[in-house]
Design goal:
This protein has 69 residues and is of the alpha+beta class. It has a single domain, classed as Alpha-Beta Plaits. The protein is 35% helix and 32% strand. A 4-stranded antiparallel β-sheet has the order 2-3-1-4. A hairpin with a 4-residue loop joins strand 2 and strand 3. It is globular, with a radius of gyration of 11 Å. The N and C termini lie far apart (28 Å). The model has no long low-confidence stretch (mean pLDDT 95).
């Protein structure tokens, strides 16, 4: 089993609580046990999970949001 790691993203295109819910659900579709913290104002998304950063980023992009380095 993989160790839990913390991943941080800056997500663009989030503007409301619906966006926060969509991003959270996208992440939890990859890892239902993920701990997700989102700051809507800054676009900061921090995830404690066993999933890879790439799989999380792909799930977020699939919902229509961008990720900046």
């Amino acid at each position: 089993m993989n160790a839990t790691a913390q991943h941080q993203f800056t997500v663009t295109g989030m503007s409301c609580q619906h966006c926060v819910k969509a991003v959270t659900e996208a992440i939890r579709s990859i890892d239902p046990e993920a701990i997700v913290s989102i700051d809507l104002t800054s676009g900061s998304v921090v995830v404690a999970t066993q999933a890879t950063s790439e799989s999380l980023a792909n799930a977020i992009r699939h919902e229509g949001y961008g990720i900046t380095p």
